[in-house]
Amino acid sequence: MTNCWRLDTPCQTMVLASFGGLPECVYWAGPLPSGEDLVALADSTRMAPTGGMLDVISPVSISPENSGGFMGAPGLARRVNTYSAGWFEFSEAEDSDNRLHIWARNTPSLLDYELIAEVDATSGMIVLRARVHNLHQSEQAVDWIAAPVLPGPQGSDEIIAFSGRWCGEFQVERHGWKAGGYLRESREGRTSHTDFPGVLMPLRGCTETGGEAYGLHLGWSGGHRLLAEELPCGRRQVQMGALVWPCHEIPAEGYYETPPLYATYSAEGLNGVSHSYHQYLRNNLLNYTHPERPRPVHYNCWEAVYFDHDLDVLLDLADRAAALGVERFVLDDGWFKGRDDDTSSLGDWELDLHKWPGGLSPLVDHVNNLGMTFGIWFEPEMINEDSDLFRAHPEWAMDVAGPEGRQQRVMDITLPGVADYLFEKIDAVLGAYPIEYIKWDHNRALPAHAPVQVTALYALLERIRAAHPMVEIESCASGGARIDFGILAHTQRVWLSDSNDAHARAKIQRGASYFFPPEITGSHVGPKVCHTSGRILPLAFRSSIAGARAMGMEMDLRELDESDMAVLGSAVARFKARREVLHTGRLHRLESADPAVLAEMHVQDGHFVVFAAQMDASRQQLARPLRLAGLEPDALYAVRLENWAEVPGVMNRVGQNPLVAGEEVVLSGAALMGRGLQLPNAFPDTCWTVNGAKI
Ligand code: GLA
Description:
This protein is α+β, with helices and mostly antiparallel strands. The protein is built from 13 helices and 37 strands.
């Protein structure tokens, strides 16, 4: 008996079929016609065994089972004899418009598997979760439970995954599909700089702007595993799930639910996949505190003063920031009791009265009087051994026998009293001053990957949100080590990287853009000499790269002379003018004909803005045309080089092209996407910005 179900969005259809056991995804690609005979489709995917195989070809089900004869990596692993463990048999299903539940039971093992699939028509996303119910009267240990397992596409030569490091997050890596497995794991109990829980699978010939591609992302902020496996028979499976140490202990008659797996397919290139992720996040997860107003331009004082808080200096920095058009002033690490460097005080969330004898009010009031709002830094889950909190509660720190990270330990926030303590401390600070933003940091790896720590964090964030609904929270973890759809259901902005090096940042921003939209991605104009790379880059370039995301600045503003202030002030003004397009429009990564140019554009309601960053010297003498994307072919657009005033510094002759002289050029979408935009030549580490408006 074959049972079938379909999940439809405007851009994809997924068909699940049960041949008596756990369902298998038998179709995942573009939309199928409504009359498709699903049973015929499912039956047509069956294959016959050949020599050297078992007599049945067991399905690559949503949780492949070795006990059913499947020879690849199982979706659910337990230390039991697979021959006596039995397998799951389909029991029932409930299918409503945008939600599907399927249950299957493994009678010998007394486990139920429940698939929960949801469809979001607006973004085109399919969200899948698995629940494993324990029917025993006692706790049951399970070593691994993947979120529902999907087939790796045939016709795809590559797996695009993301590696990274501190100051170098979201590095795009392309790996060929090969016999055997491609495994990525974060074993540090957080999303990590090094292994992002997401993967893209383009079909042959797919580019940023065209062709077919698949995306998977696990919305989880703890340890995780990604396995893309090609079986000897040629079939492929992709498993993603939360890593747990030592194992999941499913309570008697309770269940474990996997984190959500966000699955999308697009026939509009890798950009199409990204649009689904951006749209889903915007509509379904992000709970932005002030939807009525744009995301503010930040000034963060960290790289200006570090731990050295002096009221007069900070007042001066606030004046300078306001003069540049900044809208939010953020006091970073160093404000609490005894925090003179990074060796002490985490956990003691009370104001340092030596640095702040009059409290924070003199600074907060000054900032507010300048028309800016105020934000502050916390690192709640951490504790220094040199702190009053540790002296009172050494048992709150995890793993005191193991090595420290940044001279600090992680607190077990699942222990009674810890979350209450943190809530009270944060609540007291938020209650004492008009604060509308927290930078919530997490600067070290965990000694173990315990999912309960992650769920306890989500609960603490929700408790703070409930008490202070207008306070925005940014997720930071030494830059971008905790960025995922799990944390973004509870926070509103991410600190993408501690690297303010615009050259490195441009690449990090591009990598992150596969999953995350510009408005949540904090990006700051750093100091002249970058503190994390030592590189000196032009202020105009630094400003353009930051101005492509959620712009801010993080430097000692006293280093800017009058002409620098003018450059940065005008970059802020231009950012504000394009902010709506950036923060609500569609981001298209462009396929630049010149590998030395990294380019993207943002389109919203007939307006667009292009960023073309010259990352290196080009091989050829003159700039190659840049083909745009996402425009209406028949519409006419008035196009202008926004920063044409920088042209004389870069080109010795302006030539005939009116665009280069700062004039408006009117071209059709077809011309802009077909032939492309002829930009001026550029020095390395400069970035052209172009505005377009439909006429
Ligand atoms: C981390 C963050 C930085 C800064 C410091 C403060 O490294 O990523 O931006 O807030 O902590 O200690």
